[in-house]
Amino acid sequence: MKNNNLTLILVFIISISGYSQNFEKEFDLLLSKDYPTSGTGASALVAINGNVIYKKAFGKSNLELGVDMSVNSVFEIGSMSKQFTAVSILMLAEQGKLKLDDEITKYIKNYPTHGHKITIHHLLSHTSGIGSFTRSDEWYNNRNLDWTKEEYLNLFKKLPMHSAPGEKYRYSNTGYVLLGAIIEEVSNKTYPEFIHENIFKPLGMKNSFYISSSKIIKNRASGYDNPKDLIDEDFNENETVRGEIIKLSQFDGGGSILSTVDDIFLWNRAIRNNKLISEESKIKAFTNYQLINGQHTNYGYGWVINEIHTATSIEHNGGTFGFRSNSIYLPNKDVFVVVLTNRTFSDPDYLSTKIAAIAMNRPFKEVDNNNINVDPVFLGTYEFDDGSSR
User: Fold this and answer.
1) What is the dihedral sign for C-alpha 297, 303, 304, 307?
2) pTM metric for this prediction
3) In the prediction, which pLDDT does 154 show?
4) Using CA atoms, how far apart are residues 247 and 336, in angstroms rounded to an integer?
5) 126 CB-near residues (< 8 Å, 6+ apart)
6) How far apart are the C-alpha atoms of 171 and 207, rounded to whole Å?
């Protein structure tokens, strides 16, 4: 038996080594092209069957000081934080402290629903009909202010409903901040206290934090942006500038977490292995929900439901003023990819998708960009819900 076990262990080690050797050059080529040594950087991790086969960092964590990026670098992960909020809600539901079909006014008193029944499910799945505050001029023009919870909720109450609940899918940061408020109401803890005590600490996520602009956080990467939207004649349009520092704690349940690739991998394994929520709750989180008309939203609870080469993918990206992030999980292949970057003018979604395809031995065909005809009507700058633009 001992000899048989030793043989199995050796075969396992050799197979993992084979994975790493086969993919390392391809992953290096993809990442180094976008994140050269002298520029802003990224940290990436790839795992197959729960085993890390690739983990590297590229570029700089801090351009001014010339600090290299590290696999231990801490990034703002933006809307990837929504996963943590959704799981927190599901944890509270399993404890019997709330129900997903509860109306939000049960926990957030006097919230204007305009005659509609808006439930926790609607907030989780972005089908509430409540507009996103990040599209509000009032918030954007005052984004650097230290808003109180009451001021924030008063802003939300002014937002118009763009549809009846369940009628349309529309990504809403407001919905997830409201979920953060519900977590606080039900648990009698602040949102950062709840996620630290119930997620970070039990999972050993020692390098994950609730965002703070003043706290000293070891290995924190600096964020960078492109000045194209800044009105300053001293800037070259292709120049890199420091990312704007805003009060991201305003986002609470919508995008307020800092983390590393290793900690995000710990998070992935915890969800896969039902360490925090049951299999039943995980299925709810990974369900591709439908609107009233039967159309699928391609969103679950805190995760986007997609596919890569017909393989189901559970993923989410994120963006703040200086950072971009994306993670992809292929549950049927047990392939996990996370790419975290410290610049907004970056596309970790594209890179992580290509990496995931390579990891399951189905790479995308290369396209000759020089021979693509683009209709000029589609050329321009497009703004996304997380504040980023392309």
Assistant:
1) negative
2) 0.88
3) 87
4) 31
5) 169, 170, 171, 172, 175, 297, 299
6) 28
